[in-house]
Design brief:
Blueprint lengths: L9 E3 L10 H10 L9 H6 L6 H11 L6 H17 L2 E4 L2 E2 L1 H5 L5 H19 L2 E2 L2 E5 L4 H11 L8 E5 L11 H9 L3 E6 L5 H9 L5 E4 L7 H10 L3 E3 L1 H6 L11 H6 L4 E3 L4 H4 L3 H12 L3 H13 L7
Parallel strand pairs: 1-2, 2-4, 3-5, 5-6, 6-7, 7-8, 8-9, 9-10
Helix pairs in contact: 4-6, 7-8
Length: 318
């Protein structure tokens, strides 16, 4: 009998909490906050989830986030994601949040962080979730704005464990944010960054050597650089790979082309994650199931991928 992938104990290290905003909740929050969405139904919104590239997705992602205004909105958003985690035996999470997506709309930093962390804390108390929250800078904005965002978050320093870098990768190399990452690491914050999704392998080198990241988010284009592959294998730098996301955003045309199992067998510390599950068609279990269906993932490989998630965590796991 094959391993029950839903029952498999899992950790998720690459999840944008705003990317877990399901259409049904988006419409409920829009109604609650008296916001008009440019879609007349949940079905119409779901039909818009046909992305040609990362920017197509980001345009919809930022538009959807506009329904998040109050602490209770961020609580409801996070709780809905954590309910999915509980149902899929995801016992440890290290979610990203994008404060600039909200503060640029005059939503206070405290509103964002308090709503998210209250839901995380409740899940820890209710069913034993372990977690660590990561603040991400939007790379299409300036480093100066990232510095201001870090300043605004410092009163809540105890609520997050690290900083990350996300949004549009092309044309925004990691070195653009070297000073703010140096500053964050000096405060004892962990550093992670998106690199090597649509950006070249050079961005992965920069994330490692210039930003001092301890984990690379995505990183799948490392396969184009043998020296980088050896570096990642030798140093056991975790890659938080997001299979369904990579297909929906056309990083690969079909899951059968995805290199995650080859990376695993080559000795790299790869993990499975959902990225923006409301937009990409699946949470953790669905990502594991896609690897079994299209890549022939074995039960042993599934167990190793799941264990890698716990081994790559930045804080103690449950």
């Amino acid at each position: 009998m094959s391993l029950d992938l839903n029952a498999l104990k899992k950790a998720e290290l690459h999840i944008h909490i705003e990317g877990s905003l399901e259409p049904e909740l988006m419409f409920r929050l829009a109604e609650r906050n008296r916001i008009t969405l440019p879609y007349d139904s949940v079905d119409a919104l779901r039909k818009a989830y046909d992305f040609g590239n990362l920017q197509d997705f980001l345009d919809l992602y930022y538009r959807g986030a506009q329904v998040l205004l109050h602490e209770e909105d961020f609580y409801d958003l996070t709780k809905a994601y954590l309910d999915q985690c509980r149902a899929q035996n995801v016992t440890h999470v290290e979610p990203f949040f994008d404060p600039q997506t909200h503060t640029d709309r005059d939503v206070d930093m405290a509103t964002v962080i308090k709503g998210i962390t209250r839901a995380l804390s409740d899940a820890k108390a209710d069913w034993g979730l372990s977690y660590g929250l990561i603040l991400c800078f939007l790379r299409h904005l300036s480093e100066e704005e990232a510095q201001k965002t870090l300043d605004a978050a410092l009163p809540f320093r105890d609520h997050f464990i690290g900083v990350g870098l996300d949004s549009s990768e092309k044309g925004h190399p990691p070195t653009k944010f070297k000073r703010v990452f140096d500053r964050a690491r000096g405060m004892g914050l962990h550093a992670v960054a998106h690199a090597g999704e649509e950006g070249p392998p050079e961005y992965i080198w920069e994330a490692l050597d210039e930003l001092g990241v301890v984990r690379v988010d995505h990183g799948v284009r490392a396969t184009e650089d043998p020296a980088l592959m050896e570096r990642l294998r030798k140093d056991q730098i975790p890659l938080t790979v997001c299979p369904l996301s990579n297909i929906r955003l056309k990083v690969f045309d079909h899951m059968s082309q995805h290199p995650i199992l080859k990376l695993l067998e080559d000795g790299l510390r790869v993990t499975v994650n959902s990225d923006d599950p409301a937009y990409f068609g699946g949470y953790m279990t669905e990502n594991f199931e896609a690897l079994r269906k299209d890549l022939g993932m074995t039960d042993d490989q599934a167990r190793r991928l799941a264990q890698n998630g716990f081994d790559a965590a930045l804080v103690p796991t449950s």
